[in-house]
Design goal:
Helices cover about 20% and strands about 25% of the residues.
Length: about 100
């Protein structure tokens, strides 16, 4: 995430990733959020989905500042919206050439 041109880093594309926490890596999500916060505002729309496609699937939309201190497990996918992403109801929506 620290590589690439400065212009590309500043745009922060919508992203999705998983964190595989372990005792030695308990702070990886916090570190990832801190890196993203170097380039964007703390009110960036984010989301987490646990157990995708499994029994007990759950989703939550939150701001980057909240995500930083959220506990996740290896069954959780983290989504970071871009500057155009909005929270509509309980969903993250990133427009692609249409009005929302």
């Amino acid at each position: 995430m620290r590589h690439g041109s400065a212009a590309r880093r500043k745009r922060i594309f919508p992203s999705a990733f998983t964190i595989h926490p372990a005792k030695k890596r308990a702070d990886y999500l916090k570190k990832a959020c801190d890196i993203i916060l170097e380039q964007t505002q703390e009110d960036r729309v984010c989301g987490i989905v646990s157990n995708i496609g499994r029994e007990g699937q759950s989703a939550r939309v939150l701001m980057l500042s909240e995500l930083r201190d959220t506990q996740v497990d290896m069954f959780t996918t983290v989504f970071i919206g871009n500057s155009q992403t909005r929270k509509i109801g309980e969903r993250m929506v990133t427009p692609r050439g249409y009005r929302i």
